[in-house]
Structures are given as C-alpha cells and as structure tokens.
Amino acid sequence: MRLFAAVLPPSERLDELGHVVDRLHRLPGADGLRWTSRPGWHLTLAFMGEVGEELLPELRVRLARAAHRTPPFPLRLHGGGHFGRRALWAGVAGDLDELRLLAERADAAARRAGVAMDEHRRYQAHLTVARARGEAVDLHPFLDGMRAFEGARWEVGELALVRSNLPVSGVRGEQPRYEQVGGWPLAGSAGQPG
Ligand code: ATP
Ligand code: MG
User: Fold this and answer.
1) Ligand nearest to the CA of 6
2) How many CB atoms lie within 10 A of CB 57?
3) pTM, 2 dp
4) Residue 7's domain is classified under what CATH number?
5) Ligand 1 pocket at CB < 6 A
6) Which range of residues forms the domain containing residue 126?
7) How far is the centre of ligand 1, averaged over its atoms, from the C-alpha of 76 (Å)?
8) pLDDT tens, 80-121?
9) Does a structural domain hold residue 106?
C-alpha cells in the first residue's frame, strides 16, 4: 500500500484555511488548477510510497518510538508558497525545529523498518492546496491570496500514518483518497534530547 507519515491539523484550523481557499476558487484561472480535497488536507512528514504488508508491524513499532521521543509542539498554518508552476501550498510557522525533527524521525523509522526511502531534499513543510493540471497557470494571484493567511495555533500531539489510494481511472468515489491507518501520541518531554 502507498503510505506516508503526516501531521493532520485539527478541522477548525483547516476550516480557517478553507475560507481563504474558497476565495481563491473565484479568481480567474482557478479552473486551470486541480484543487486538493479538503478532508484530505495534511502536512506530509515522510513519503514512503509502496510499502509491503510484511513491513507494517516493524514500521508501526518504529513510528510509535519516533512519536514517543517527540514532545508536543505548537504550529500554525501561515502564509503560502509554490513549487515552480506545479503546486500551490499553505505554509506553517511555530516550532519548525521540532516539526523537522519529527519528519527526520519518521523518515529514519521507515528506513529502519526496511522501506526504501528516497534521498530527501531539504524538508519544506507545506500543505498542498492546488496543483497545475498541465497547462501553465500564473500562480501569482493565488499566491497573493495565500500570503496574508494567518491561522490560529494548535498543539501537534500525534504522528499519523496515512494510506493514499490513487484514483483508479474510470472508477469514481469508491474509496477515500486518504485514510488514516495509524496514529501515535507525541510523548517526549520538552528540552530533553531525542
Ligand atoms: P496525486 O499524486 O494524485 O496528485 P497526492 O500527491 O496527494 O495526489 P500521493 O502521490 O499519494 O498523493 O502523495 C501523498 C502525499 O505525499 C502528498 O502530500 C504528496 O505531496 C506527498 N508526496 C508524494 N510523493 C512524494 C515524494 N516523492 N517526496 C515527498 N513527498 C511526496
Ligand atoms: Mg503525488
């Protein structure tokens, strides 16, 4: 199954972002973008791709350990950015050091469980709200709309394991796009080395 580790913001925080994204939907050019489905909004920590069933027990043990070593930390959705002309996203602010550490621990957990992880580029926390459909869309008006966004803060308290069901062409709405298949509480104490 296709898996990734993520932070799932609480629904109130996603609603705040939703209000901003609703406004972006009304801008010229919005139809040229593929808007991500709102119930699936997430902050990817570590993308694993296809993971064999036989690796799951060990993966779960190691992710639990990664969560256990990490203290809960504050985060808020903040501003936005883009990856080239491909993706438009909301950014985050708050304890980004702890977020990056959690991402590194999730990556290491997967690696040690035997998942073949890509060598990662520098971790850039983001929540993808839209992707280009193919033809180039000028993202500037959308970026202007995202930049002023400031969400309320919340306390990240869980490391989530999410299954991604890629859409099967010709079949619609058969299964959820993303499904949470695991979750472990962050249980480290602040100020202690991980
Ligand atoms: P789609 O691929 O249909 O556009 P998606 O990208 O949301 O949808 P997945 O490809 O399963 O679905 O990816 C799940 C999450 O992991 C997304 O947040 C995606 O941006 C991220 N992701 C996918 N591939 C990678 C990768 N190689 N490196 C880092 N993150 C990735
Ligand atoms: Mg993808």
Assistant:
1) 1
2) 10
3) 0.94
4) 3.90.1140.10
5) 2, 4, 44, 47, 118, 128, 131, 164
6) 2-185
7) 21
8) 999 988 899 999 999 999 999 999 999 999 999 999 998 878
9) yes
